[in-house]
Amino acid sequence: MTFNEFNFHKDIEKGVKIAGFREPSPIQAMSIPIIDNGEDMVGQAHTGTGKTAAFGLPILDKIANGEVERALILAPTRELANQISDELYHLGRFAGIRSLAVYGGVGYGRQIALIHKGVQIIVATPGRLKDLYRKGKIDAFNPEIVVLDEADKMLDMGFLDDIQEIIDYIPQNRQTLLFSATMPEAIKDLAQMILYDPQYISVVSEEEEETNNIINQKYYVINESQRDKAIEHLLESENFDKALIFCRMKKEVDRLSEYLSALGFSVVGLHGDIEQYERERIVKSFRRSEVKIMIATDIVARGIDIKNITHVFNYHIPFDPQSYVHRIGRTGRAGKSGIAITLVSTEEFNELKRIKKEVGADMEFSVMEGGKGTLSDSEYRDLSDKIREMEIDENVEKIIEHLSKIDSTEILKKALTIILKDEKSENGASIGYDYLSVKDMIDNLDSEKKATRNNNRRKKRA
Ligand SMILES: Nc1ncnc2c1ncn2[C@@H]1O[C@H](COP(=O)(O)OP(=O)(O)OP(=O)(O)O)[C@@H](O)[C@H]1O
Ligand SMILES: [Mg+2]
Question: Residues with Cβ within 6 A of ligand 1?
Answer without folding.
Answer: 21, 24-25, 28, 45, 47-53, 181, 303, 305, 329, 333-334
